[in-house]
Amino acid sequence: ILATGEDGSGNTMNMNLIRMGCIKAYPIRGYHAEKKPYLRITAPNKDLRFTALDIISKYNSETDQENRIETASDDTGTYYRKVAREYKIPLSGAPYYAKSQHCPHAFYIHIDNFRLIDNFEPLYKIYPSSFFAHDRALVLTWDIETYNSRGLGNFPEAKNDTSQVFTICMTLHWKDDPKPLEQICLVDVEIAPNPDWITIVCGNQANVLKAFALCWKSFAPDIQLGFNDSGYDWPFIVKKATKLNVFDWMVQQMSANPYKTANTQSTLTYNYF
Fold this sequence. Notes:
Residues 136-249 form the DNA-directed DNA polymerase family B exonuclease domain. It holds the Pfam family DNA_pol_B_exo1. This protein is α+β, with helices and mostly antiparallel strands. It has 3 domains: 15-77, no CATH class; 95-132, no CATH class; 138-268, Ribonuclease H-like superfamily/Ribonuclease H (Nucleotidyltransferase, domain 5, 2-Layer Sandwich). It has 7 helices and 11 strands. The strands form 4 sheets. Strands 10-9-8-7-11 form a 5-stranded mixed β-sheet, covered by helices on one side. A two-stranded antiparallel sheet has the order 1-2. Strand 8 (163-174) and strand 9 (182-187) form a beta hairpin.
């Protein structure tokens, strides 16, 4: 399909620049106990990646449902966070390049040679130590897991009573420090414990949301980060908390101004994510 297809602008793929390989990964939608086989297609730049996605999208629009191709990642926007997550690249800190190949206008480096600096002593002789001073901002990262009791194939949406958030995981870091201060997992039912995480069994969905608000209040992070949190996680939490009548209480716990009374009406007047 990629070798013979064209995108909406008539662009084609140079297959000599494409790398392909078989991998196993968890599907991005729904819960799956086991990994499934995928064909990973790696393009050398964003333009070729977008062309490939456009060709596949065009093919899917012209064929029947049974023969359509399902893509694991079809984001045509900024996808640096996904790449960083898959290749475990730190998005902050001071990295260095090992064994880079130089040419007049660019340099190339294998992903395995992109490394985080863990010993700054040699660099103190070259640069002032203030250059490497760590920002002591407190960073909270978080992610939610949702499901739809109607089964796989039914995407969880907060408006549906059959859709629930059953897990919220959080890590707490000093900025630029990949080692977490705390790792917390909020769940609705008891699960097997993990010695690296603090697991809190909340009993039901409403308590999971309330526990999230209390953790937020206790940590009072300077920065919060999530994976697609503005596109899915925050809207889901806000809508579900509103539906469960715990939103006002959560806002009061999480607010940076505890002396100002907040309510659902005043909060939802603004774009909350």
